[in-house]
Structure formats: C-alpha cells, structure tokens
Amino acid sequence: MSGSDRGQSHVVGIALLVGVTVISIAAITASVGVLIDQQVASADAIRVADGMEAAFDPKGTSGVRRDRLPFADGTLRPVDRQLRLIDGTTVVRSIDTDALVFTSGDQRVTFAAGAIMRGSAGEAWLHAKPMITAPPNGSTLIVGAPVIGTPDTVSGSGTTVTIEQNVTHERSVIGNATDAVSIETTTPGPLSWYFSERGAAVERQDLDGDGVESIIVTFRGERQTYLIVHELNVEVI
Question: Mind telling me which residue stretches traverse the membrane in this protein (predicted)?
Fold first, then answer.
C-alpha cells in the first residue's frame, strides 16, 4: 500500500470514529433527556397526589376552601364517573361523583370516590383510601361520596393552579336495602385489592355500557347504610 493510500485510510478511519462518537453522544443525550422528563413527570405526580390528599378532605371541611397545586408540566381534567348503592340487582342510589385526573407523560393521578390512585390501568396503586367504611364484623356501612362538579381542564408548564371548593354535605339514611357499592374507574386494581383485604367480595362490570368498568364491592351481613354526599363544587383557577 502506498503512502497516499495509507493516508486516505487513516483519514477515513478518523471520520468513521468521529461519526460513531457523534452518534453515541446523541444517543446518550437523548437518553438523558428522556430520563429527566420521566423524573420531572414522576415528581409532578407525587406533588399532585400529595396536594390532592391535602385539598380534598371533605369530612373536615365546610364552605369555601382554596388550595394551591403546582406542577411542572401536565394536564388536570374532570372525567365522568358514578358511584352506586346496590341491593341485589337493583341500583338504590346513583351519584355522579366524577373524578379529577392529572396526567404528565406516562404518569397519572386520579381522585375518585374519595380515593387517590397513582399510575395507569394495570400498574396503579393506592395513594389515599376511599371514604367507605364497613367494619368486617359490624352492622353498618358508611359511604362517603365526594362530588367533584364541573371544573375546567387546565394544561400548562410551570403551572400553579388554585383548587377552589365550596363544600356542603348531605346525609341520608339508606337503611338495610344495600349490600354493595360500585365505583366506576379505569384503574380498578388498587380499589379491588383494598376492599378484598378487608373481607369484601369484589367483581367488575360495566354497569351503564359506557366502556368503563365499575368495581362492585359486596359486604358481608346485613348492614344499616348511611350515605354522605360531599358536594365539593370544585373550580380550577
């Protein structure tokens, strides 16, 4: 091989090395960017879940209340959801509780029926328990049903929203004509686990044909049922 050929080979080798290095740096940069985005979304989900838990405490709240909810990037929106009291195959009461859902990347936080869940279907877990009390060997069933209302959807980056509520309460004695409660949700796993651990029988069914299943929780024994509807009248500002 002549000196000229060796020189050309050397130049080509350097060019290939530089090209591989540039591609590697680009891949590393992209990976770091994805990791940072995931960490930001995860931090947002934690802040929002903690913020929802602090804000939505209707048992200890009446009248107007305002709480701040910061997040770096995401969307906060209401979705249609129902809670039902059931006796056998008969729906005794149906309440449009609705839910408030925060999404950021692949992170999701949902406030529904008093419970707060993090994660998507199949990978969700319970952050705060629902407002339903049924002692395993007791004779009462107390169902708290927080009703969200119709807040606006809010999206943004570097956003701090104000959750304004005007809370009222309505208490009803349903009597012993209830043996099950259904909660409509796209993340049934955490709630199913929660109630199963407390001795209730749990099944899933789409009760109104809208494509969203409800978990149907049946409690043992005859119980006196009390329903407390917490009208939150949420506004997101």
Answer: 12-36
